[in-house]
Specification:
Layout: E1 3-7, H1 16-27, E2 31-38, E3 51-56, H2 62-78, E4 84-88, H3 93-103, E5 107-111, H4 119-122, H5 125-138, E6 144-147, H6 150-160, E7 165-166, E8 185-189, H7 198-204, E9 211-215, H8 221-230, E10 237-241, H9 245-254, E11 257-260, H10 267-270, H11 275-282, E12 287-290, H12 293-302, E13 305-308, H13 313-325, H14 327-341, H15 346-361
Parallel strand pairs: 1-2, 1-4, 2-3, 4-5, 5-6, 6-7, 8-9, 8-11, 9-10, 11-12, 12-13
Helix pairs in contact: 1-15, 2-3, 7-13, 11-14
C-alpha cells in the first residue's frame, strides 16, 4: 500500500483531527507517517496505528520557529521514501511542495481554514504579506486537496481555480458518552487564540450562574488569564491547559453547555466549522454558537445549538443563563444532539476521505 506523509506544526498528542484522519487511512491499509513538533512541555506520544515523529526546535514560537521548523522538516522529509505527501494547513506547505517536486510524488493540501484570513495573520500586514506570498506560490500547484466546508472550498476555487473536496472534521460516534451524567458547568475546548471572543466571554461570566472550564492553550492565554484576574473570576473560570483526547472527551461528556464563539471580522472565523461544534453534538451537549453561515445551515436541520449574532458580554450572559435555567429547552436540544450524532459522525464522514485517497492512489 502507498506510504503517505502528513505534516503539521502541532504536538500530535492533542491533534484529534489528525488522529482521526491518520487512523482511518492506516486502518484502510495505507502506511501513514504523521510528522509534528516536540515542545518543552510535550508528554510521551500515545501509541497509534500509524507512525509518529516529533521534530525538536530551538525556537518555540514566532517567525524564527516557522523558519527553523520548515527547514528541519524539509531535511527530514528529503531522506524518506514516500508515495504521497499532505500538507496540513499553510504552515507546512512549502517543504511539502518542494519535496513533492524533488521526489515526483503526488501532493495534497488539507486546509482546515483560510489560514491567511485568521485574525492573528490578517491583523499584521507584514506577516500577512509573507503568508499570502507562500499561499500564492504553492496552493495553485496542489491539484489535490480538501477542506472542511463549502464556503472555504469556494474561496479556493475563486482565488486559485482549485476544486477542493469537502471533508468535515467530525467526531467519532461514541455511544458510551450518552451514559455520563451532566454537571452544571460550561466548557470551552480548543485553541485559546485571538478572535475567539475571550474579550467578551470572560467578562460575561461575571453575570452567569455557573463555572466556565477552559481546556486548551494558545496565543491569547496570557491575556485571558489577565482578564480573569482583573475581574476577580479565578474561582469561576478554570484554565486546565492542554488535556489528552480521552480526558477532554470526559470533560465534554460531563459539561452542561459548550461554547463555539468567533469574532466576525475575520473571514476565516466567519467561514469556520470548528471541531468542537461536533464534539458537543456527539456528547449531547447544547452549545452557544455564533450565527454564521455554516453553523446556521447545520442548526437549521438539527437544532443542536443556541445561535447568537450578538457577542457583547451582556448578550452572552443572558443566553447562557437562559439555557442554564430552562431545563425543557436544554433537554430538547440535548435530545436533538443525540439524534444528530447518529448522522454527523466520523464513521460516516471518513467514507469521503477514503474515496478521496483511493481516487489518487488506487
Amino acid at each position: 500500500m502507498p506510504v503517505l506523509y502528513f505534516t503539521v506544526t502541532t504536538d500530535l498528542t492533542y491533534d484529534q483531527r489528525m488522529i482521526r484522519i491518520c487512523t482511518s487511512l492506516a486502518t484502510a491499509g495505507y502506511k501513514v507517517q504523521l510528522v509534528g513538533r516536540l515542545q518543552k512541555n510535550s508528554i510521551p506520544l500515545i501509541a497509534q496505528p500509524y507512525r509518529q515523529k516529533r521534530i525538536h526546535c530551538i525556537f518555540e514560537k514566532g517567525k524564527l520557529f516557522y523558519i527553523e521548523y520548515n527547514l528541519r522538516l524539509f531535511f527530514f522529509l528529503l531522506l524518506k521514501k514516500m508515495d504521497g505527501i499532505c500538507a496540513i494547513d499553510l504552515d507546512t506547505i512549502l517543504p511539502c511542495y518542494i519535496i513533492s517536486n524533488i521526489k515526483k510524488t503526488p501532493r495534497i493540501y488539507d486546509a482546515h481554514e483560510l489560514f491567511c484570513e485568521m485574525k492573528e495573520i490578517v491583523s499584521r500586514p507584514k506577516i500577512y504579506k509573507i503568508w499570502k506570498w507562500i499561499e500564492r506560490k504553492t496552493v495553485p500547484h496542489f491539484k489535490h486537496g480538501y477542506t472542511v466546508n463549502k464556503p472555504i472550498a469556494e474561496e479556493f476555487s475563486k482565488m486559485y481555480g482549485r476544486k477542493y473536496d469537502v471533508i468535515r472534521s467530525i467526531t467519532l460516534q461514541d455511544i458510551a458518552l450518552k451514559q455520563i451524567k451532566k454537571e452544571k458547568f460550561i466548557l470551552y475546548q480548543g485553541a485559546v487564540n485571538e478572535g475567539r471572543c475571550f474579550e467578551t466571554l470572560l467578562p460575561a461570566m461575571q453575570f452567569v450562574n455557573a463555572q466556565l472550564i477552559i481546556c486548551g492553550d494558545g496565543n491569547f492565554m496570557e491575556q485571558a488569564k489577565e482578564i480573569v484576574t482583573n475581574l476577580q473570576l479565578n474561582e469561576k473560570v478554570i484554565f486546565n491547559g492542554m488535556v489528552t483526547p480521552s480526558l477532554l472527551k470526559n470533560y465534554t461528556a460531563r459539561s452542561y453547555i459548550g461554547i463555539t464563539l468567533f469574532e466576525k471580522d475575520s473571514k476565516s472565523n466567519y467561514f469556520s466549522l470548528a471541531n468542537r461544534f461536533f464534539d458537543y453534538i456527539q456528547a449531547g451537549v447544547p452549545q452557544l454558537c455564533v450565527d454564521y453561515p455554516v453553523y446556521r445551515e447545520i442548526n437549521d436541520v438539527y437544532q443542536v445549538a443556541v445561535l447568537t449574532d450578538n457577542l457583547d458580554p451582556g448578550s452572552i450572559a443572558r443566553k447562557l443563563n437562559e439555557l442554564l435555567d430552562d431545563e425543557v429547552t436544554w433537554q430538547q436540544i440535548s435530545n436533538n444532539c443525540l439524534a444528530a450524532a447518529k448522522i454527523l459522525n466520523w464513521q460516516n464522514e471518513e467514507i469521503k476521505l477514503l474515496a478521496f485517497y483511493k481516487n489518487i492512489f488506487g
